[in-house]
Amino acid sequence: MPNTNTTARLLITCPDKPGIVSAVSSFLYNHGANITDLDQHSTEPEGGTYFMRLEFQTPHLDLSRNVLAKAFEEAVASRYNMNWHISYAADLKKVAILVSKFDHAMLELLWRWSRCTLPCQITSVISNHPDLESDVASFGVPFHVVPVNKDNKAEAEARINELLQGNDLIVLARYMQILSPDLVARWPHKIINIHHSFLPAFVGANPYQQAHDKGVKLIGATAHYVTADLDQGPIIEQDVDRVSHRHDVDILRDLGQDVERNVLARAVKWHLEDRIIVHGNKTIVFN
Amino acid sequence: MPNTNTTARLLITCPDKPGIVSAVSSFLYNHGANITDLDQHSTEPEGGTYFMRLEFQTPHLDLSRNVLAKAFEEAVASRYNMNWHISYAADLKKVAILVSKFDHAMLELLWRWSRCTLPCQITSVISNHPDLESDVASFGVPFHVVPVNKDNKAEAEARINELLQGNDLIVLARYMQILSPDLVARWPHKIINIHHSFLPAFVGANPYQQAHDKGVKLIGATAHYVTADLDQGPIIEQDVDRVSHRHDVDILRDLGQDVERNVLARAVKWHLEDRIIVHGNKTIVFN
Amino acid sequence: MPNTNTTARLLITCPDKPGIVSAVSSFLYNHGANITDLDQHSTEPEGGTYFMRLEFQTPHLDLSRNVLAKAFEEAVASRYNMNWHISYAADLKKVAILVSKFDHAMLELLWRWSRCTLPCQITSVISNHPDLESDVASFGVPFHVVPVNKDNKAEAEARINELLQGNDLIVLARYMQILSPDLVARWPHKIINIHHSFLPAFVGANPYQQAHDKGVKLIGATAHYVTADLDQGPIIEQDVDRVSHRHDVDILRDLGQDVERNVLARAVKWHLEDRIIVHGNKTIVFN
Amino acid sequence: MPNTNTTARLLITCPDKPGIVSAVSSFLYNHGANITDLDQHSTEPEGGTYFMRLEFQTPHLDLSRNVLAKAFEEAVASRYNMNWHISYAADLKKVAILVSKFDHAMLELLWRWSRCTLPCQITSVISNHPDLESDVASFGVPFHVVPVNKDNKAEAEARINELLQGNDLIVLARYMQILSPDLVARWPHKIINIHHSFLPAFVGANPYQQAHDKGVKLIGATAHYVTADLDQGPIIEQDVDRVSHRHDVDILRDLGQDVERNVLARAVKWHLEDRIIVHGNKTIVFN
To answer: What is the pTM for the complete model shown?
Structure first.
């Protein structure tokens, strides 16, 4: 693994045309960047949308971050109509986790973070229940309880919104409340949810019960960005596990939770490493 | 693998109560059967529905098939309200395959059959197109073309129905016509279809296009018994393969066809080995 | 899931001959047991070794445990030369975990145990390093440090042996010391180890380095019973994950640890549920 | 899928240093090539070996193939000490298949080739047994029988060598004879073998028997380039399937053959699409 303290990542979306790789890589090379990873994708052989992810090493850059950004915009991005973003691995993203009573997805994130395989700063865990307080405390992460009931929804969300300020990513690790379209709109492609089914199958409540009723032979989990449409946002990652007629709903839930936590952990890691570009209602995942 | 020429299989469905295993196994033992496999399942710890599959060896049976059946009904089945069926592996089931233009699912079945890993007699392949005639001919299986268009539906189906007579199982190996509820009703739990999606996601036409539009990260296939509700019959087997933003619809189709043929082959094999019991809209698969 | 407080399990190994199922199930039925699960296996169609696992419910048993055992031995087991064992789910097995510095396998077990999906009593964690003390403490489990170096091996093992007394199962959750043949011999088929490779590939030290040097495209993990032969005991469970040329040894280790913890957790669960029979150097796993 | 008739692929191996992407992509852009895919890999963050695969479209190239190659060597490759190769998708590689009696691996290749998902020209099938003659004939591919016994080895191999002339790739689709080091040396990284185990486990004869004896819980298959060391050449692809104590060696073989044919088909496809670079005894697979 390259020294992440000196790694920068450039994500680009633009209309596809010849010369982009050459222009981008030459610009970076001429300013002292060493490109250590490069991936690209086009929606069409010709005339489609072009996506690119570069990782480069910064030690020999001849420009400061701001000047580099300005120079890139002028010399390359404006010429190709690029939507682009540079991030620096040394700037750990700030992450807040929302959770209810199920601990598995949250613990998986906290555990991976504590052993340095999730490159971020987990700033807080917010829950509508007090149950997981001591679990969170043992990781040294602040825990906030914001009870939600039918009478205090607006108030509760205002409090949550306040607590979220300053974060770069919000992870719904089995948070059983629906966020308002307003709050969601304030965090475009910055809220990741784990849904406990293989979407688009079994949208909504009790997907394990739905799966059991249907008699499927595989159960799944889906990590996706949250949009105003419930369980309809861009899918980041999915996985499944095999089940049979022997498994009642409780066992489906147990097996499924193992799928959920792995799928969510992968999706969050890819977001933190700037591997995901959202295009329409789909994702490009450079992994 | 036991000598299948002497293998018999007993499938039982009945209300669950204590003593069933004892009654069934003692009956068989007392009549000279050697039980070589036994599997059971209850929907509830108590008071549910009970399912059982036994394999036994017949060489030392002291009764003929008919007399054994009658004795079992009187001594055991009637006492426990059993729905039951004995089949003999030596009686190969007769199978007809319906297909359109895609060859992959049909060829997989014919190939497995030709190397003796699908224990059945494939009596014929029926298609609404002539395209696959020589492929089928090379396996020595009769091929019938029954063109279907909007003007001859009833007539065509009457012809298909006639061709199907005498078979024990019908396999829709990517047959792109919808069978009438009438025909379906005549073959309860005896028509297996392969649907090219992970049901219940992407019911209906063009599931690979639907999957691509949705941006799922896994594509799947589902083998199920055909009922009057399109793509809603009891699921027998499912599987998936991983895909990414790099895969266009054509590649999804190519990858998916590998999943389809394996899923269908497994489902047909289990049916032929009497491993499947249908209960409501779900299957018990003893495998 | 049936009420495990009233579940008993009977494991049987004996020479295969007709009548075993009938004899066993009739005995249990006649004494008030309700058989809720039954699985069997023969190594040969005829004349092989026969294995059986039954789960039955105890509320209506007409005999005490001791009397039932004695009656079964006399009425059934002695007749068929059975090696057999009944265990009661209400008697939670006592488990000790040995660990070194890697936390992942141990934490997975503690976490599953704390949420009641590993039916046992974890009595203690023993380590040759103090590093994981606070992790273990947060689960309320006693933690013992027994340092091992080349001068104190015998002494250290004597201390470990003392600490292990009274347990039913020992789990080596990435314990990096080799137990003496003497200690191993005292716990036949009662020590489970997780080895971080797909055995028999990459026996011994640094399997991830070995895997990287070989350029394999899948890495694996293997849970097995410990015998005097290093990494050669009966395999209980294995799984793999896909890797590529992009993954250096550190990443292989990270990915592999996810496989290790799941494979170990499944193996331990199956042992605790009396699903495993060891036969020669192989396992029968009724799952 | 881009129009493969106009696709060219450039594979590069060289010492890693900054500027390579820029140099290569600028050269291609300046000569009218449109880069549609680009992948790279370095063995080390700094000072390692660098590998690159580019796909580009040729319609607007301003140089002929020969002149382009010469210009690339002079302007770029010589400067970076590159080992490089350009291939054109329109030039289908010529492939010969060697096979013995098992048909599954060979049929999978022929079937995929016949439906245009293996981009190559299959020139002939060579076997030491006549058994598969009619299977091969039905695909319109020449079939040559070259019997091999202990007295005619040299002679037989000379005949095989003669038949292989003019091919670009040789696929051993379960060819049960060992090729001489001499013949192997003449086709470096141009002979792909499918071995029916998860290498490095179960090298040599009867891997399914070895797997059964060992009691593994997964069986596998490995596609690799053939070198003088039996079953030790660079691994291209591997996969596994789950097995249990229920499966005897015959069933392992049946299940394993499904793994073999898929693993081999993927490896051959990747070779045909110039996705593989061999480095030491390992492969870089850009897929």
So the answer is: 0.96
User: Can you name the residues that pair with D243 across neighbouring β-strands?
Assistant: none
Number of neighbours of residue B199 by Cβ within 10 angstroms: 23
pLDDT tens, residue by residue, D27-45: 999 999 999 999 999 998 7
Mind listing the pLDDT tens digit for each residue in B194-224?
999 999 999 989 999 999 999 999 999 999 9
Domain end call among C42, C72, C88: C88
Preferred mutation among D102, D106, D117 to probe B, highest tally of B CBs within 10 A: D117
Domain residues for the domain of B167 are 93-285
Model confidence band, residue A3 (pLDDT cutoffs 50, 70, 90): low
Shared domain check, B157 and B233? yes
Chain C interface with D: residues with Cβ < 8 Å: 41, 198-202, 214-218, 220, 234-240, 244-246, 281-285
- Res. C24: pLDDT tops 60: yes
Q: How many C-beta atoms surround the C-beta of residue B101 within 10 A?
A: 12
Q: How far apart (Å, rounded) are the C-alpha atoms in residues A267 and A274? A: 11
Percent of chain B exceeding pLDDT 90 equals 92
CA dist., res. C102 & res. C106, Å (int)? 8
D87 — phi, psi (to 5°)?
Answer: -130, 155
B147 and B202 inside one domain: yes
Percent of chain D with pLDDT over 90: 92
Inter-chain touch A28–D22, beta carbons under 8 Å = yes
Q: CB–CB of B34 and C57 under 8 A?
A: no
pLDDT of C68 higher than 90? yes
Nearest CB to D262; choose among B248, B250, B258: B258
Same domain for B123 and B169, yes or no, is yes
Per-chain mean pLDDT for chain C: 95
At residue B2, does pLDDT exceed 70?
A: no
Terminal Cα distance for chain C, rounded: 14
Could you give the number of structural domains in chain B?
2
**What are all long-range contacts of A55-59, with beta carbons under 8 Å and residues at least 24 apart?**
A55/A2, A55/A7, A55/A8, A55/A9, A56/A7, A56/A8, A56/A9, A56/A10, A56/A28, A57/A2, A57/A3, A57/A6, A57/A7, A57/A8, A57/A33, A57/D45, A58/A6, A58/A7, A58/A8, A58/A33, A58/A88, A59/A6
Please report the pLDDT score of residue B45 as a whole number.
74
Alpha-carbon dihedral of residues B104, B107, B113, B114, nearest 10 degrees? -140
> Which residues on adjacent β-strands are paired with residue A54?
A10, A38
Pairing status of strand C120-127 against strand C143-145: parallel
- Is residue A182 annotated as a catalytic residue, yes or no? no
pLDDT score, position D47: 83
